[in-house]
Design a protein that fits this description.
- By secondary structure, this protein is α/β, with parallel strands linked by helices.
- The chain has ten helices and 18 strands.
- Helix 5 packs parallel to helix 6.
Length: 386
């Protein structure tokens, strides 16, 4: 097959979904569709009964086309346009997660025009550091997301004074690729404090949306293909102090789809520099942006490598005319030559969805692998059977 191409293991995705649902128990899970909008992946996730978390109007429309019911769609995002809000109103989605006082005013005005009562949750900025990359930290005062605790009650009163808005929930999200569960413990404790204040004010909150952010093992994807959902959900069950009627919602993306995707690429040239070797491959930052954008380190393997081959060090780089087009620096791997196929692991989240055509590059093809005995969807032409 012509490289570069994305390859999805739908058996692994199915096993991940089964374990997720079992460990989530009675919690409500919304798939953060921004992680991967591939139609076949989204349809499989919707078939398992998950809701969806959207951050644009087009994501709402795409989610509905992929089978997610509007009654399970929540709409987040710090900069919703009027047109996007109207898409959510037209389809009568479950909830808008609002992030500013002005958004509340605009949403109420548009809801009045549509004559729709709208459920809203306030996205709260809890000022908690997630100990992750600065570009995917979202819950501190330095971030653009959410409403600070200092201004929270002002926004509550504004919603209460709005004729077409109904406050039903609180929304939190502190960041992505979080591996230290103590960060989520800090979030749970902050949520308890805020809920106690709401209780004292006589404000009833029906659901708590804790966002997502659970990370995956990029360094050992084969050994840890499914995240530790049990510890993640158990932490919140142990730490949250909720009323009996309050629902708990999560918005997981990377932890669901991250490990089921690989990016296949071939070595074009091996080039000897002054002090290092370069392995120049046919995939670039246009096909996988995370290393250039987040300095992300994906595990890379040589396809069909022989056992106990001698290791060599390479900078594995792409063909794009940018010095940031680097997948790994000083990376130890079996000796490479022109034509060798490499597999970049753990690209199921924020991989294909961020593909661009910079340098007028062609978009990579996409292929799928599925055990037909477990099939839940019709997969179409690019299907590789076991």
């Amino acid at each position: 097959m012509k490289t570069p191409y994305y390859f999805y293991d739908l058996d692994l995705l199915e096993r991940t979904l089964i374990e997720l649902i079992a460990e989530a128990d009675d919690s409500h899970i919304h798939y953060a569709i921004k992680a991967n909008t591939d139609k076949r992946i989204c349809r499989m996730i919707s078939n398992y009964g998950l809701g969806v978390d959207c951050v644009s109007g087009n994501e709402i429309l795409h989610a509905i086309r992929c089978g997610f019911p509007p009654s399970k769609i929540v709409f987040a995002g710090v900069g919703k346009t009027d047109e996007e809000i109207l898409i959510g109103l037209k389809h009568n989605i479950a909830c808008f997660n609002v992030e500013s006082a002005q958004e509340v005013q605009v949403l109420n005005k548009l809801a009045k025009r549509m004559q729709r009562e709208v459920n809203v949750a306030i996205r709260v900025n809890p000022n908690i550091s997630a100990e992750t990359h600065e570009y995917i930290t979202t819950g501190t005062h330095e971030n653009k997301f959410g409403i600070s605790c200092e201004h929270l009650m002002e926004v509550v009163r504004l919603i209460e004074d709005s004729s077409y808005l109904k406050l039903t929930g609180l929304h939190f999200h502190i960041g992505s690729q979080i591996l230290n569960l103590d960060n989520f413990r800090d979030l749970a404790h902050k949520v308890n404090v805020i809920l106690a204040e709401f209780y004292d004010e006589g404000i009833d909150i029906q659901h708590i949306n804790l966002g997502g952010g659970l990370g995956i093992d990029y360094q050992n994807p084969t050994g840890n293909p499914i995240p530790d959902f049990r510890s993640y959900f158990q932490l919140f069950r142990d730490e949250l102090q909720l009323e009996a009627h309050q629902e708990v919602h999560f918005e997981l993306g990377r932890s669901i789809v991250g490990q089921c995707g690989d990016l296949h690429t071939k070595v074009l040239f091996v080039k000897q520099g002054v002090s290092k070797q370069f392995a120049i491959v046919d995939a670039g930052m246009t096909d996988l942006l995370r290393p250039a954008l987040y300095q992300a380190n994906h595990h890379i393997i040589k396809n069909n490598a022989l056992e106990n081959e001698e290791q060599h060090q390479y900078d594995i780089v792409g063909p794009i005319c940018e010095s940031s087009d680097v997948f790994r620096k000083s990376y130890s791997i079996e000796k490479l030559k022109r034509g060798d196929e490499l597999i970049i692991k753990s690209v199921g989240a924020y991989g294909q969805v961020m593909v661009s055509e910079y340098n007028l590059r062609s978009r990579p093809e996409v292929y799928y692998k599925k055990d037909t005995s477990m099939a839940t969807i019709a997969l179409g032409e690019h299907l590789l059977m076991n």
